[in-house]
Amino acid sequence: MTLAFWGCGVTDSIRGFEPLDPGSIPGTLTGLSLLHGHVNVVDITEVCEPSDLGSNPSMPTNSTKFRKLGDEKMTEKKPNENEIIPPEEMIDHNNANFLQIENVMTIFVAYNQNNIQDGTDWDNWPEWELCLSDFNSDIHFEMDDDSEEIRVLRSQWLTAMQFIHDGEHIHVDGYKISIQGQHGNFFKFDICFDPEVWTSEPMDEFVHEIPDKYGTRFQKSIPFNCPSTIGHSLGELWVCPAHVPKYGGQQTYFTETWMCLSKEHSDTFPSALHSLLCLCIDDTKIWADACQRDIDALERAKWMEENWPGGIPDQDWEYQ
User: Is this prediction's pTM over 0.85?
Assistant: First the structure.
């Protein structure tokens, strides 16, 4: 495996589960493993396997953040539980910042109120409101002649959004997604829809609010300094959590307060995001893989010190 450094850590690619069929069960994921630097599908079935609510401590079940965001808005405006609020009443079209995943989630909640009440898979695509967001313009509107690839991409977004909405381990605030792993460690990252990337950098630093006579617009400046990074709660030079097989209690030497996990080029963003969320909830393999990368980096550093203390000619900018 080739290690790639951004001056601040080792980068790996995260590859999601195989393309979801339209209508597949939200939360279904066979698992994740690191294979030649890419996160692939393998054996963590207990993390995202469908189950009854509350039956599995590692399974995201009842929502915290979006049970409040969606359901509270629904309850405060309707006389009974079965009434559906028109999406135009739930969505603040003129002033909400639709660069934020929190407000994009409101759009999906507004169009899937029946599914939320019935506990069924989300299958209603917003009519037009995604035009207000930075979502891929190819999937804004459902068309009769949409390709299978576009239909699958919409299905994956519905699955990912429902997984976030229903996850008791997942909290969304503005641009930020925070995850509490099943072993008590925390992860966080901000979401950007254009370009499609997660980052440990605060998106607020890249977005400017512009009031006008119609409401409020939000303008984004890029690029990011550290795309594809996620923050975690262990700090830098962390000791591997004790519960991690083989690596528990091991000191690391090249780790930061965040780690780099990038999307596999051939994967879709919602599929990779779903995989990343499951990897954080699992709260084990993510540390094992990072520890192994740290071991590889340490061995490489020792080899360099022994064989090329002045740097490798034509390969090392520090060559003397």
Answer: no
Dihedral angle of Cα 287, 293, 296, 297, to the nearest 10 degrees? -110
Instruction: Please state, in angstroms and rounded to a whole number, the distance separating the CA atoms of residues 290 and 230.
Output: 12
Domain encompassing residue 228:
4-307
Q: How many domains does the chain have?
A: 1
Phi/psi of residue 107, nearest 5 degrees: -60, -45
Contact 81, 62 (CB under 8 A): no
Structure tokens of 37? 């630097």
List 170's β-bridge partners, or say none: 179
103 and 97 in contact (C-beta within 8 Å)?
yes
For residue 185, give the 3-state DSSP assignment.
coil
Give, to the nearest 10 degrees, the angle between helix 269-282 and helix 285-307.
90
- Measured in residues, the chain has a length of 320
Whole-number CA gyration radius for the chain: 21
Contact (CB, 8 A) for 253 and 237:
yes
Query: Would 214 be classed as within a structural domain?
Result: yes
Q: What is the DSSP string of 15-84?
A: --SSPPPTTPPTT-----EEETTEEE--S-HHHH----TTS-TTS--S-SHHIIIIIIHHHHH-SSTT--
Cα(67)–Cα(103) distance, integer angstroms? 14
Give the lowest-confidence range in 16-20, 70-74, 221-225, 291-295.
16-20
Nearest CA to 261 out of 32, 28, 30 is that of: 32
Helices (H), 148-268: 148-166
319, part of any domain: no
In a domain, 70, yes or no: yes
Say if 320 falls within a structural domain.
Answer: no
Higher pLDDT, 239 or 316: 239
Q: 263 near 274, Cβ under 8 Å?
A: no
Backbone phi, psi, residue 43, to 5°: -140, 20
